[in-house]
Amino acid sequence: MRLHRLEVAAFGPYRKREIVDFDALGADGLFLLHGDTGAGKTTLLDAVAFALFGLVPGARGEVRRLRCAFAEPDEVTEVVLELSVQGQRMRLVRRPEYQRPKRRGDGTTKQNAKASLTWIGGVPEGYPAEGLIRIDEVSRTVEGLLGMSAPQFFQVVLLPQGEFARFLRAETDEREKLLEKLFGTKRFADVEAWFRDQRADKRRGLDQRRQEVREWVARFGQVAGEDAPEQDLAGWTAAVREKAEQAVAEAKSDEERARSDSDGAEKLLAERRTAAERVHRLRSAHRRLSLVEDQRDERRAWAAEIAGARRATTVLGAVTQAERWAVRFEEAVATERLRVRELVATGQADADAEVAELRRHAAKLREEGGALAGLVAEAEQQTRDRREIEALVDKAEEARADVLVLTEKLDGIPQRLEELRRELDAANAAAVQLDAARVRHAELEVAVDDAAGLPGAMRTVAETQERVRIATDEHQDAREHRLRLRELRLEGMAAELAAGLTDGQACPVCGAAEHPAPARPADGSVDREQEAEAERAERRAEHARSTAEAARHAAETTLAALRERLRGRTGEDLDEELRLAQRQLEDLERRARQRAKLSSEARAAEAEAKSLTDKLRAVEQIATAADARRRTLLDRVDERARRLDEARGEYPDVAARRAQLSRVVRALDALVEARTERVTAHQQLAQRREELQESLANAEFGTADEVRAAARPDETVARLEKRLSQAAAEEAAARAVLAEPELAGVSPDDDVDVESATTAVRAAREAAETAVARLRAADQRATDLETLAVQLSAAIDAIRPLEEEFAELDALTDVINGRGQNARRMSLRSYVLAARLEELALAATTRLQAMSQGRYSFVHSDRAGARGTKGGLALDVLDDYSGTVRPAKTLSGGESFLASLALALGLADVVAAETGGALLDTLFVDEGFGTLDAETLDVVMDILDGLRAGGRVVGLVSHVEELRQRIPTRLRVRKARTGSTLEVQM
């Protein structure tokens, strides 16, 4: 994999679009990302990671805030990366999800995450030519081409040698955590946890089964009424069951004896009850016969009463009919007299005429009234038409008054509408000019602020120029002081070497073991520490000079921008222009605000004119239509009045004449009906009286009153008949009982003792029930014990394989978690980490030997820790010079950096070989350079320079000034708002 070009916009601390050309930077194979702390060096690495995977490494990825806080609302947060993987060049574009201010109104709106992959040059086989735009497809394609996941990429490409430096000095527990972070052994930790969870589950299941066994034992003991022994549980249960069976046999024998006694007592009671029942029946029969004999006279009276009622029933209907027709005849006579008076009151007919004559006269009058029916309807219409004529006169007059009012209103509207339109045109023109006026006003406000800030900017430039001059002088002095000290140290180098001589040890210059005249330090000599302090002072002075120059450049840029924007205008001129612009803007805003009101008023005036015109036309039509209708009705009313006057005769109107005819017809019809009803009733009354006399003679009654006296309701007759039948049945039943053979020889005076037999039966039953209850209890207890014994035996048999299985799982879990029979006290995770550490140590040793010129090698040990602590993660260093193995924490600062860098590069080799990933042509080395002295830094730079072999590009990330001196600046990127600058060098 090789990076070609990176673009970031509104990303992290970078507000504007910044471009990093890796092809230009990597031309020599080595480049530097340099800047102060917080300048945004690591952000460029985050941008590369985000473009590839949509993620950023470390804790920064958990915050998920990638958008620049100073970006404008319309600026898009975006990362663009061009790279080549496996010979295929591609362009990745990603945008994160973020919230931006709404373009209209308050609040924010969410911008969704986006991603795209575009092929540059050829298209790989199996991929679409148009590229990819789905986020998940882009991520899967990148991982497939790179052959590694995001965490692996962060380990391999963004070398975290700072973590390896901590790793070298860490204890076992901390080293285990770092290895887990590097190698991601969570799945093995999950296996350990799974075994622990399984053991806990099995233990809970086994405890539950054990509790079940204890519960079965407790239930068995509760039924047996005994406490379970600690030993020989099976023998105890067998003995309890044998006792229960013996108790059942004894209870069964007692129950049989009690049942036999109860049966004998029951038999004696039944015999005595039978004898007592026969005596009772005999006594009852004699008592009933005595009662029947006492009612003999009363029963004869009941029979006579029933016979008279039955004879009266045959005549009672004829009596009722005769009386009903007598009443109807009287009512018909009264009705006829009333109808005669009503007819006489009309004064139009003869009430004494025959029925046929009365009917003919009614028919004639009915025909005459029918002829007048049509004229009655015309009379009613005549009244309605006259009322309508009056209403039409009022309606026409009201419409003509409305015409005058509407005409007056319409006369003033056109002029008012013209004025509103002129004002609306002026308001629209003001609205068009408003945006330009606001822009002009805003520009003048900014210009006024610039004019106010111009003196301060000039003072700032002067101050920064003075600080640059002072910093330059101090830097020159510090440099001269360092050079002078170096010269003095070189002059006194012999004394410095002599200070390290010891009798008996070889001189590093001449090799002699004796030192007769070692050199002595001269006055004013300089040692190594003084020279190093001078170098540090020079670097501090240089940094202060750079800072002052950057501040001067910023101040001069600000002053130039202010002067360019002011274009020679003074503050007084700008204040006057701002006041004029303010007045003009307020006037335009006032007129523009009236647009909606004027437009609404104009529309209302137009609508009012149209409405009034429509109303005027409508009322004019109403007046014309009312006059025409009135004239038509007047002609029709005059012609109809002549016909109605001829038809009414001597009556007030036609309706009155027709009403009189109708009254006479109704009176005639009523008299005919009443007279006919009287004749019919008289005929029926005579016939019913003849039938009554015949019925009285047949039933042997003289008058109707005798019939009414003998008549009885049906309920009374039925009740008397029931009494007679009951008395006869009582007598027959009593005589039948006395004739029964089984009562022969039984006297009503006999006395049978049933009470003593009942008491004996009750006592025998209680004894039998008690014996049955004891038998059932003993049998149930034996059954329960048998069932519980079977359940208890099954529970004991079921728990044995579970205990064996749990013992095996418990031992295996201890081994996997580094306890029990695990002699090395290594958990599964530690074992895997030890294997990975051993593989890493082999790969890193190759690097470390090359860096240390064959002196150092890594040595991995899986020995257990002290006092039984877990082991397997020991990592020491073999010093070839002394042939001894020593802890890695004893390495010096430079040696530790070399060892950590070797581990980081070894990890990259291991992960790349493991994943089968693409060849990594671009690496980034972050952290650690600030801890190196000058000599170690020389060694490291030589090693990093050697990493460029084979066309590999190595990017260094550091704020160390010495690296900046070694690699010339090619690109500067200014961070948003803070003014700090990131330099990209090669």
Strand proportion, as a percent range, falls in 5-15%
How many strands, which pairing sense, and closed or not: the largest β-sheet? 6 strands, mixed
How many whole angstroms does the radius of gyration measure? 66 Å
User: What's the helical proportion of residues?
Assistant: 55-70%
Measured between the Cα atoms of the first and last residue, the distance is: 20 Å
Count of runs of 4 or more consecutive helical residues:
25
Strand order, sheet with most strands: 9-13-14-3-16-15
* Class of secondary structure makeup: alpha+beta
Organism: Amycolatopsis pithecellobii
Subunit structure: Heterodimer of SbcC and SbcD.
Region (Disordered): 512-555
InterPro entries: P-loop_NTPase, Rad50/SbcC_AAA
Describe the protein.
Keywords: Coiled coil. Pfam families: AAA_23, SbcC_Walker_B. InterPro entries: P-loop_NTPase, Rad50/SbcC_AAA. Heterodimer of SbcC and SbcD. GO terms for molecular function: ATP hydrolysis activity. It is a single chain. By secondary structure, the chain is an alpha+beta fold. It has a domain at 424-501 and 525-594. It contains 25 helices and 16 strands. A 6-stranded mixed β-sheet has the order 9-13-14-3-16-15. Strand 15 (969-974) and strand 16 (981-985) form a beta hairpin. Helix 6 (161-169) crosses helix 23 (893-915), helix 10 runs antiparallel to helix 20 and helix 22 (828-851) crosses helix 23. The longest helix is centred in the middle third of the chain and has 79 residues, at 413-491. The radius of gyration is 66 Å and the shape is flat.
